[in-house]
What does this fold into?
Amino acid sequence: MTITIATLSCVSDRNFELPKKDCESFLTANTTYRKVKNMFVEKTFQIQDDLIIEGYVISSDESGNFFSVLHFQDSPVNPTEGFQIEIDLRDSHLFYPVGSKIFIKLKGLYLGKSKEVFKIGGAFSSFGNISVGRLPASAVREHVFLSCDEKIDIEPAKISIEDLNRNYSNTLVQFDSVQINEEDLNAPFAIQAEVTERVLVDCNKNEIALINSGFSDFYNEVVPEENGKIKGVLIREKDDYQLQIRTLNDIEFGNKRCADMVVRHTSNELFISEIADPDNSSDARFLELYNSGSESIVLNGWRLLRYTNASTEVSSEIDLSGFTIASNSAFVISPNSMAFEDVYGFLPDWDVGKNSPADSNGDDNLVLIDPFNRVVDIFGVIGEDGSGTNHEFEDGRAVRNVKIKQGNSKYTTSEWRIFNDTGSAETINAPQNAPQDFSPGIRN
It folds into this structure.
């Protein structure tokens, strides 16, 4: 993702005479953000119609990270659009606090577009071209009106960096499970008197710029090391996105950093190859995965789910992150490594404990999920108790036919040889004993 730096400016002297703070009870919006934006044709122009829009304030200059701009969106929850107005009014948070409803009379304001982002405000001329600039402080109260409604808590849209799109521009958003990029650790939020970019990154290496003003109250604070959630106003310049916080309270980092910043991959060449419930020893149960591909598969983000009996809710799951399965190799998971070694003569690849997906008693349903939450392989039918069905392996074994080279997101009986103590519904009535009837780690 290309990252650009937003232009911020600020002043350190905030001593000035405050205008009278009042509110408006009688104004009503008569148009929408979209209709206003659709009025724009090629160049900045002055609006002549008696139009009024309304919105909820989401930015704040209280800590000095915003300056001479007011960001607002069309709803406190699930907004469809955001907007910004350029104003030459310091400490605007005293008059238009976050969560307050405002009305904006558009007649006389200028509508323009900069780097494909719409803005309204005053005007300035440069080389004969008119652009949107700051609305003078003396004119702000003629166009921007505070509603008498009580302030409302603005609920940020919870999105991932991968989900970014233009619909979120100038709205309040929240990213979970992100952290400051390692290269920026131990650095302050900003260099004094300079706009400074720090990089936020998630555990899949997706990045977004965090823009901080060198005039902010917190510019000299050291960025946090932990992982967590952060909210702020989403700023856009063409297809480049940046996040701008209001205060340090927008950051809640208290979790451990991502253990490994690796790109996650999926593959249909990883699948469940054997599930064991020996008749002579429940401690010798195991589940085996197999990689039939020509390359190793890193299991970061992969999960195994167990749906006990007829449950439609996940009963237990294990995260396979941190392991790798080599090409044409098996990966054996056991609920009891000591018992497994006593029975089979070697240690399993992983000991996951009792009541895990590797500890099924033969009538449960098991699902292999890739890092993108897609079902890659499944054994059984979720919501159906396996007893007496074509997916019962109680006191026995379910082993994948050797001709199968890929996972299957729909359970298919013909892909399996299933042994149990009943022999019903296309299964084999032949209880299996460990170790002789099982082959953990070997595809046969």
